[in-house]
Amino acid sequence: MTIAALRTGHVGLNVTDLDRAIGFYTPVFGFEVIGKGVEEDRRYAFLGRDGKLVLTLWQQATGGFDGTRAGLHHLSFEVDTLEEVRAAEDRLRELGAEFAYDGVVAHREGAASGGIFFTDPDGTRLEIYAPTGVEGAPAPAEAAPTCGFF
């Protein structure tokens, strides 16, 4: 028998500082803390929206994200409109986030979809994009997907 329907349940990220990570992910993505565990050497938080788990944070990393190692390349979130992408960009700028590109960029040359590419406080690469509305925005590379090489 094959799997009939498959969806991502949630994503778990290792972080170096749980409180700092919560302070980043909750205002940017509108997450609420729906569960939290704090023990001597075990700290974690479950973040979600409308009671649905989306992201788990595990304070067990000893260093920042390393894009040269096997594992997560980047984590992408889709929103409905370009206006939501721009609102997230404003919040990220207020938080001092580092961006891979200046402003909204297209996923590829001539694409209608695109967004912003940035890192969290531990250097994990993130993307917030809209499926349409980005027509005419620049693409950082003509032939390669924007999200592939940031």
Automatic annotation (TrEMBL):
This is VOC family protein. One of its GO terms (molecular function) is metal ion binding. It comes from Streptomyces palmae. It holds the Pfam family Glyoxalase. Keywords: Metal-binding. PANTHER family: FOSFOMYCIN RESISTANCE PROTEIN FOSX, LYASE, PUTATIVE-RELATED-RELATED. Signal peptide: none annotated. Residues 7-131 form the VOC domain. Gene3D superfamilies: 2,3-Dihydroxybiphenyl 1,2-Dioxygenase, domain 1. The keyword Metal-binding applies.
